[in-house]
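Researcher: For the annotation table, I need structure tokens for DeoR family transcriptional regulator. Please keep the output clean. Sequence:
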Amino acid sequence: MTDGSGSVITTASPQSSKRRDNSARQKQILDVLLETGSATIEGLAERFGVSRMTIHRDSHALVQQGLIDKLHGSIVLRNKVTTQKTVNFRRSRATDLKDAIIQRAVSLIQPEQVLVLDDSTTVAAMLPLLPALAPLTIITNAVGVIQALSPYPNLKLICLGGDYNPPRNAFFGLVCEQAAQSLRANMMFLSTSIIHNATAFQNDQDVVKVKRIMMDMADQCVLLVDSTKFRKGGLHRLASLSEFDHVLTDSHLKPSIAKALAQEDVNLEICT
């Protein structure tokens, strides 16, 4: 197919689009299970706006990968330690899409700034690039951030303690919230579970509480979200996208979504 100028226009086949949708939804089902441990088929169907049969097919695919078990009417993580390596699984998904987002995010940082980093796998992809920008002060509730950056003496690390959440490898709860309230920062970098109707959602209320307080710490907040997270669903409201100084996503975002967000005064950046 060509446009009026003779340029070739390529379109994805319905089959390839469907496979991408299925893969993205299965990743998000795993995200839910990593946060909650289990979920009902009916609840997942309602959350993602699909039929129960579709969720059954997704569940079967995840069973085949050895990640979950199906029970009567529900699904559970097969082994939290194994699927936690899904912090390996999650990190490996959409890696190519995240690269451009990460490069743009890092370009916003100046030496000697104080940064807040959440426990998301998207933000974790920034970590190898931070030592080159030292000196920096890093505030985080994520154990993985501390472990990754501790070898670098020019990076001052402040860990927010609290109740340890093994699946997320991070701290939450009242102690974490109180510690965050006493600190200030230049920028926060974070991600979220789902974007729907210009709103960021998380699947765990405790995560929302800590992220909201961490956002309030910072002069600017930068949201990093690959295009697979723009879909129906979401349980707990984190924030309107208009509350973020930058919303960074990749070039696979549907043009109709980008147009709608522009009308909502969202500072959206398509990273290429």
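Researcher: And a one-line annotation?
Model: Residues 1-12 have pLDDT under 50 and may be disordered.
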